[in-house]
Amino acid sequence: MSQPACPCGSGRALADCCGRYHAGEPAPDAERLMRSRYSAYVLGLEDYLRATWHPDTCPASLGLDVPPRPQWLGLSLKAHTPLDETHATVEFVARYKLNGRAFKLHETSRFEKLDGRWLYVGGEIHE
Fold first, then answer.
1. CA distance linking residue 81 with residue 115, whole number of Å
2. Beta carbons within 8 Å of 93's beta carbon, 6+ residues apart
3. CB-based contact 75:9 (threshold 8 Å)
């Protein structure tokens, strides 16, 4: 029986890719954390998203269950830039549909490694 493909687009099974981070294994770098967070948005894993968000910038709620929910279509990684041992950026484009219209989210995300775990700090949206 084949396992479902990982939503991050790696071509690997979810359990062998982002699923292991969703289950609690720390992501080894900012790129894999970003991919696992994209997959968490696809799968509606708000607890994981909040757990991997820097405590200084994490919102009280993400509202993932509030309609209309986006239909995530794919992720394209543009750049992973380690800045030092505990800081990195990841530039990506995520495609989605909302109410039948197609959109792209192009962001350069900032990550910080805190207590041995990479966390999402925030991002700059590119128009």
1. 20
2. 75, 76, 78, 104, 105, 106
3. yes
For the stretch 87-116, pLDDT in tens is: 999 999 999 999 999 999 999 999 999 999
- Asked if 7 contacts 38 with a C-beta cutoff of 8 angstroms, the reply is yes
Strands 71-84 and 101-114: unpaired
103 Cβ contact list (under 8 Å, min separation 6): 70, 95, 96, 97
In 3D space, the residue among 59, 36, 118, 120 whose CA is nearest the CA of residue 85 turns out to be 118
Q: Does the predicted model carry a pTM greater than 0.90?
A: yes
Query: In 10 A of CB 97, how many CB atoms?
Result: 13
